[in-house]
Amino acid sequence: QVQLVESGGGLVQAGGSLRLSCQASGRTFSSDGMGWFRQAPGKEREFVARISSSGRATGYADSVKGRFTISRDNAKNMVYLQMNSLKPEDTAVYYCAGRSGGVTYVYWGQGTQVTVSS
Question: Least crowded by CB within 10 Å, which of 2, 31, 44, 73?
Fold first, then answer.
């Protein structure tokens, strides 16, 4: 099984940037698709971005397209989410997740809080 630990969250002003990191351990995850999700208070968890095992294919929620960039470094067992032009509505707990060959994300990190002030 893969363990995931997110970091890089914090408090930032609207228009600012943050880079989230997700460190994987336990086994190699280079064959797994990875994704970022978020959950705001009182709301359901929602998809943010995904990346294929090779890193060549990515996808984004419409709400973050053009502002967020997902990337990965398989040699370092890392996944990143670069977040630019942050908005107060981006405030949420952000989770890293992975899927092994299927479409369902089966392992998750503990989350990191991102707060964007207006």
Answer: 44
**How many secondary structure helices (H) and strands (E) does the chain include?**
0, 11
pLDDT in tens, 31-69: 999 999 999 999 999 999 999 999 999 999 999 999 999
Distance in angstroms (rounded) separating the CA atoms of residues 11 and 19: 12
User: Token digits for 44?
Assistant: 């359901």
Integer CA distances (angstroms), 98 to 40, 83, 94, 105, in order: 20, 20, 14, 5
Can you tell me the distance from the alpha carbon of 100 to that of 93, in angstroms, rounded to the nearest whole number? Answer: 23
